[in-house]
Amino acid sequence: MSASASLAMSHLVTLAEVDKDKVTPGVLGFIVFAVMALAVWGLMKSMNRHMNRVDFDESADRRTGSEDATKPASSGAAAGAPSDGPGKKKQG
């Protein structure tokens, strides 16, 4: 190894030596933490916006489940045929 190469290596070695008691996250740790905090803030804001759009009011016939069993079958369905239930569409 030449003299200049060994001198350069000795300077790099001194930069690489780190006191384990003084190691901190530094700027990179702060940047990662800040990005994660902004991501969580954005997700919470988006969730709040989506939750405000949800309509939690149930219709009157949904609140009383016992009425569904006592209602007569619809005019198009046979009396003994099983129903697909509300909201389901028949395929075909």
How would you explain this protein's 3D organization?
There is one protein chain. The termini are far apart. The radius of gyration is 34 Å and the shape is rod-shaped. With 92 residues, the protein is an all-alpha fold. It has four helices and no strands.
The computed structural class is mainly alpha
Shape: rod-shaped
User: DSSP strand (E) fraction?
Assistant: under 5%
SSE series: HHHH
Radius of gyration: 34 Å
Overall average pLDDT: 73
Report on the biggest sheet: none
Number of strands: 0
Residue windows where pLDDT falls under 50 for at least 5 positions: none
How much helical structure, as a percent, in the residues? 55-70%
Please tally the helical runs, counting DSSP H or I stretches of 4 or more residues.
4
Distance between the termini: 83 Å
Short description:
This protein is mainly α and 92 residues long. 55% of the residues lie in helices and 0% in strands. It is built from four helices and no strands.
Please describe the topology of this protein:
Layout: H1 3-16, H2 26-53, H3 60-63, H4 66-70
Give a quick set of tags describing it.
rod-shaped, mainly alpha, 92 residues, 4 helices, single chain
